[in-house]
Amino acid sequence: MGTTVIAGVELIRKGLAKPVGSLTQMATIRLGRRTENRTPKIKEFVPLEKLENIVFGAWDIFPDNAYEAALDAGVLSVEDLNKVRPELEHIVPMAAVFDSKYVKRLDGPNKKQGKNKMESAEQLMEDMARFKSQNNLDRVVIVWCGSTEIFLEPVPVWADLESFEKGLSDNHDAISSSMIYAYAALKSGIPYVNGAPHMTHDIPALLELAKKNNVPVAGKDFKTGQTMMKTILAPGIKARMLGCTGWFSTNILGNRDGEVLDEPLSFKSKEVTKLSVLEYILQVEKYPELYKDLYHKVKINYYPPRGDNKEGWDNIDIFGWLGYPMQIKVNFLCRDSILAAPIVLDLALFIDLAQRAGLGGIQEWLSFYLKSPMTAQGLYPEHDLFIQLIKLKNTLRYLMGENLITHLGWEYYFD
């Protein structure tokens, strides 16, 4: 996924491709009344960093440069990759902090060595500072595009920053590799986005650190194929007050993500984020006569021949007037990294904007891009894609001093 983002941005910068799927690059935003016809592109309305100013860096357990890694991933054509080959060959990954205990079906030689997890975190902080200095950068953001780690239950070492830092020094098993990256970033004042479903910075200790240093954070799990479709279809079903008794979802994919998710504990992390979507959108407790019997099942199957071209099948059993049953069938033949790449770009640009605007802590307005959005304690996540988009655009209006859009229309009739 990471190389798909990098190669894509390089192609776009050269005018050889279009940033399809990216709100920051292609979407417009309405300002004021509809009669004013003010609809600039988001990138012209909000002071986002320009694509030509972005410098890419990475950590990886494999030492291949970005061109070699992209060839191996097999997402983009060799023809497209060769158009930006020099730029990709220039990007060589730094040695990664990695422990196969947390990603059981993956390992590689390009790894850091440290006497404990605190020393590993310090090495990452040195990498971040050096990358910023060597590239003469004003700011840095980090978006996790790595593999899904195993499911972990909450433990006391996550409870507060003091316990967590002691756990780093003690090599505590409940502190995963991704948590070390998140700690190093937040300790360095760098915004951090988790694009995978596992626990990382959404634990009390790291949220405490984000608040302490006023650093924006967002996550988790990029909302691409099947879950994106659920957050489109489920709001429509509920809006029309149609019932739903069952939603069976299965996926086949064959890339590295599929191989990792073939491990039951890694799949458990993914299953939790994928299952939570319908519960919150359909609001079973408010509409028991429509959804109390809902059976929701999610399966992921590793199928190497499919590569990055993921296929998602959904069978949805619904009912309408007088309880008469109906069905919806969805077969989404998608490309996982192609759907994720514009999400990564947008999240990087928006989390940087949040940092410059002084918005520390959880950035719930970025839920639009995420399967399991982080929220403040005590708040349930909003999963409805259309409500999420309204929230995102209203946040941009607020930051720029424009009136929020409620879609009431009263401003026209009651002037």
Give the SSE layout.
Blueprint: H1 2-13, H2 23-26, H3 42-45, E1 59-60, H4 66-73, H5 78-83, H6 85-89, E2 94-95, H7 117-134, E3 142-144, H8 161-169, H9 177-187, E4 192-194, H10 204-213, E5 216-219, H11 225-239, E6 243-253, H12 256-261, H13 264-282, H14 288-291, E7 295-302, E8 311-319, E9 325-333, H15 336-356, E10 361-362, H16 385-399, H17 410-413
Parallel strand pairs: 1-2, 3-4, 4-5, 5-10, 6-7
Antiparallel strand pairs: 6-8, 8-9
Helix pairs in contact: 1-4, 1-15, 7-8, 7-9, 8-10, 9-10, 11-13
Output the structural class. alpha/beta
Task: Please name the CATH architecture of the largest domain.
Answer: 3-Layer(aba) Sandwich
- Low-pLDDT windows of residues: none
Average of the residue pLDDT scores: 93
Percent range of helical residues: 40-55%
Q: Tell me the CATH topology of the largest domain.
A: Rossmann fold
Q: What top-tier CATH class of the largest domain fits best? A: Alpha Beta
Task: Provide the succession of SSEs.
Answer: HHHEHHHEHEHHEHEHEHHHEEEHEHH
Major β-sheet annotation: 4 strands, parallel
Q: Give the C-alpha Rg.
A: 22 Å
CATH superfamily of the largest domain: NAD(P)-binding Rossmann-like Domain
Task: Report how far the terminal alpha carbons are from each other.
Answer: 50 Å
The strand line-up of the biggest sheet is: 3-4-5-10
Residues in β-strands, percent? 5-15%
Strand elements, count: 10
Shape verdict? globular
Number of DSSP helical runs: 17
Number of domains: 2
Folded structure, characterized:
With 415 residues, this protein is of the alpha/beta class. The protein folds into two domains: 2-222 and 338-399, NAD(P)-binding Rossmann-like Domain (Rossmann fold, 3-Layer(aba) Sandwich); 225-333, Dihydrodipicolinate Reductase, domain 2 (2-Layer Sandwich). It contains 17 helices and ten strands. The strands form three sheets. It has a four-stranded parallel beta sheet, sandwiched between helices. A hairpin with a 5-residue loop joins strand 8 (311-319) and strand 9 (325-333). Helix 7 (117-134) packs across helix 8 (161-169) and helix 9 runs parallel beside helix 10. It is globular, with a radius of gyration of 22 Å. The termini are far apart.
